[in-house]
Amino acid sequence: MADENGNNKGQKGLTSVLEKVKGDTKALKEKATEEIKIYKEIDRTQLYKSVFRVKHDDTPRGRALGILTNVFLHLHPAKINRDAVRYSYTWGMGGISFYLFIVLTFTGVLLMFYYHPTKGQAFRDILYLEADVPFGKLLRNMHRWAAHLMVITVWLHMFRVFLTGSYKKPREFNWVVGVVLMLLTLLLSFTGYLLPDDQLGFWAVTVGTGMARATPLLGNEGPFGPQLGMNPFNDIRFALLGGSIVDANALLRSYIWHCIGIPILISIFMAVHFWRVRKDGGISGPAPVMLESEIKELKRGAVVAPTKAGGH
Amino acid sequence: MDWQQLWEIASTPDNIPIVALLFLVPFYTWYAFRQARANDQLIGALEGSPELAKTHHRKTLPFKPEWPREVHVWPYLLRIEFLAAIIVTVILMIWSITLNAPLEEPANPNFTMNPAKAPWYFLGLQEMLVYFDPWMAGVVLPSLILVGLAAIPYMDENPLGAGYYTLKQRKWSIAAFCFGFLVLWLTMIFIGTFIRGPGWMWFWPGQTWDHSRVVFEVNRDLPDLFFITSAWGKGILGAIVMAVYYGLAGLLVHKIITLNEFNRKIFKRMSLLQYLTLQFFLIMMMLLPLKIFIRHAFRIKYIWITPWFNI
Question: Which residues of B touch A126 (CB under 8 A)?
Answer without folding.
Answer: 103
